[in-house]
Write a structure and sequence with these properties.
Elements (H helix, E strand, L loop, with lengths): L7 E4 L6 H7 L3 E4 L5 H8 L7 E3 L5 E3 L1 H12 L5 E6 L1 E5 L2 E2 L10 E6 L4 E2 L8 E2 L3 E4 L4 E6 L2 H21 L6 H5 L1 H12 L6 H28 L8
Parallel strand pairs: 1-2, 5-11, 6-12
Antiparallel strand pairs: 3-8, 4-12, 5-8, 6-7, 9-10
Length: 234
């Protein structure tokens, strides 16, 4: 992607080597305080200098095939085509998850700057555009969880965001959400969506998804039980 017209990195005042690495790739760097993913992206997109944006998270990589396909489709896109969805490969503990609903895992990532905006959700927000959405064939690579330890660290943060979204939307705790919903989430992904075809990796990841459902609902119970307000993000 070094031949991109512009590479814009939105940094939330990182203290590691992020800025140093971005400079090596010739990125234009802007810094903005992180509130949530949707807010960060909605702030960053208008800062781009060109009409089309290929948006990539920090744990994702655009394959060479995706980059070539993106360049080709934007050169010939119809005026009413406002975005393209991209198949995403989710890698878990070093390997690609092919089943369980984790592939193709389409994400709208290539879009016209002035037409796209992310829904105002605390977590897992989707991009919306008013016009037609096309589909690309080449993959975006998502290194979501290189280790289980990393996934556990993320679990606390993302379930907190999920619970914040529940509270914001007026959702209340229901006992069957912690008793039956996690089991249903596991069985749906592992059996119905054939996560078992990914072996132990599929079993562990589907189990993680069930735990995610359980923890996010348990945190909703905790907030109601202790009458907690949303606390400032760290």
């Amino acid at each position: 992607m070094r031949d991109a017209a512009e590479i814009l990195a939105i940094d939330s005042y990182s203290t590691d080597r992020t800025l140093e690495i971005c400079k090596e790739y010739g990125c234009r760097i802007l810094q903005h305080e992180y509130v949530n993913s949707a807010t960060q992206k909605n702030w960053g997109a208008p800062q781009c200098s060109h009409e089309w944006i290929l948006q990539i998270d920090s744990d994702e990589v655009a394959s060479p095939e995706l980059w070539r396909e993106a360049q080709a489709v934007v050169a010939n896109a119809a005026p009413d085509t406002h975005a393209f969805r991209v198949p995403r490969r989710n890698h878990f503990v070093g390997r690609w998850l092919r089943h369980g609903g984790f592939y193709p895992d389409y994400q709208i990532r290539l879009f016209r700057r002035d037409q796209g905006s992310w829904q105002t959700r605390e977590v897992h927000a989707h991009l919306h555009v008013p016009g037609t959405i096309g589909t690309l064939q080449s993959d975006l690579i998502h290194h979501d969880a290189p280790t289980i330890s990393r996934r556990i660290v993320n679990l606390d943060r993302y379930t907190r965001y999920e619970t914040d979204e529940f509270r914001k939307s007026g959702k209340r705790f229901r006992w069957h959400d912690v008793v039956f919903r996690p089991m249903a989430a596991f069985l749906y992904r592992y059996l119905y969506l054939q996560g078992f075809r990914d072996g132990w990796r599929g079993f562990v990841h589907c189990g993680y998804m069930a735990i995610y459902v359980f923890i996010s609902r348990a945190k909703l119970w905790e907030m109601e039980e202790l009458n907690l307000d949303r606390s400032p993000r760290s």
